[in-house]
Amino acid sequence: MRNAVAIQGMNKKFGKKEVFRDLSLAFPAGRVIGLLGENGIGKTTLLRLIADILKPNNGEIRVGGEIVSRKTRGQVSFMLAPENFYSFMKVRDAVQYFRDFFPDFDHKRAERLCEEFGLKPKEIIKKMSKGQQERLCILLCLCRRVPLYLLDEPIAGLDPKFKHESIKAMLANTDEEQTVIISSHLLRDLETVFDEIFILKQDGVVQANCDDIRAQGKSVEAFYLEVAAE
Amino acid sequence: MIWRSTIKWELRKYFYRVFAIGGGFLLAAWAVLWLLPVPQAHWHPAVDTLVFIVFFAMSVVSVLIGLYMILIHPFTTSFCDLHQATLIEHQSGRPYVYKLSVRVVLNVVTYFMGVGVLLLTMRLLSPFEAWVDRAWFSNMLADSPVVFLPLAGIFALGAPLTLLLGYKYFDIFIAKRTDKVAGLDVVGAMIASGLISFGTLWDSIFIWFPLAAGVTIFVVVNLFLAIFAIWTIARFIDHNAEVQL
């Protein structure tokens, strides 16, 4: 199976704090992957390393077979936080900004998702609710046509209706060639979304296929809790 | 497209901050000064002294505000500004170069604007020299080439340095912002932050300082107008009293 991301012998330290030591794993391509683990274990750091926002101290990270560099950034759509935009931008400005910066940005898809997500083009970002801002971030992330999407806690601030809408959009806007890595604690909401899960632990990584978990009559959440307790 | 977008949003930010706020105050101050009659003689010594004290105090405040804007402001608030949209630029695989270039160009433009505004402000103040000849305005006016030429020289060096070193240290900078350092290469991050703030520092010197001076002038002029109005009314009453006598 082709890998979307392959990490080999990677170390990452923040000062004296060691986040990853000799981490090796591979995220398969064309899957929706749940990146799980307790708070502070390094889920966000791992996503940032893959997106080339952070650099590892040692080891290598490959995206689509290429070592992570400026060149691979074009293959990755990393979900930004609302504060990464100019606060006085309107929704349509943010969409236009993305359109200008990313040649792979699908403007028509953005317009359609704006309607589905209930986002008004003339609304100013800083005046929107936290949930609306998060919806905008998901929208902009998904409207790029890239092989790999990285979403860090994408639905944490959303109400049940928009959680459902966002999950639907995630599934509808990615095809079998594209890989989605989602870091989240909301396992019940994403139960049916994940194809694979990777659980980060202090002593390593546990990988599991969600179909196998379900075949055992367990939920992803129950499986995660079992692994976390070990 | 990227240039267009970057220029548009940087300009818009500058517009809000500089042109709207600073320009508004300075225009108001300019209008008041323009309308004010040019005085021909000293007032009563006590009023002279009072005006001088007010001018002097406001000048001190102006300098303090200017120093704050120069020394502290670029290293606090401006970080957040720089962070806005830079991650988008980073993700596009063209880290920071567009935004930084636009900012450097804007720095050059605002530098000349700032100097122009400052000179204009001092020029407009010249009618008041009769009262403020003991204040620093007169000396500043006389020494302006000595003050501005070295600064222009340093600025000329600063712009390419900002571009080159800011670009080089972008990754450390962005990591610092996104991970709040967390024990990262703190020294490197601080150097990067300092260098990237260099451009903003120049904004501060050439925009915020004149702006602070402009605000000061605005306040002083209002105060002065109030005193002038009271004095005119008093003279008018005195004159009428003399005529009646």
The total count of strands of chain B amounts to 0
The low-confidence runs of chain B, each spanning 5 or more residues with pLDDT under 50, are 19-42, 58-83, 114-138, 140-211, 236-245
Q: Please provide the ordered H/E string of secondary-structure elements of chain A.
A: EEEHEEHEHHHEHEHEEHH
Radius of gyration of chain B: 23 Å
The main pleated sheet of chain B reads as:
none
- Overall structural class of chain B, as computed from helix and strand content, comes to mainly alpha
Estimated structural class of chain A: alpha/beta
Give me the number of helical elements of chain A. 9
Query: So what's the overall shape of chain A?
Result: globular
The run of helices and strands of chain B is HHHHHHHHH
Characterize the quaternary organization of these chains: heterodimer
In total, the number of strands of chain A is 10
Q: Report the portion of residues of chain A in β strands.
A: 25-35%
Please give the order of strands in the largest beta sheet of chain A. Answer: 6-7-8-3-9-10
Largest interface: A-B, 33 and 30 residues
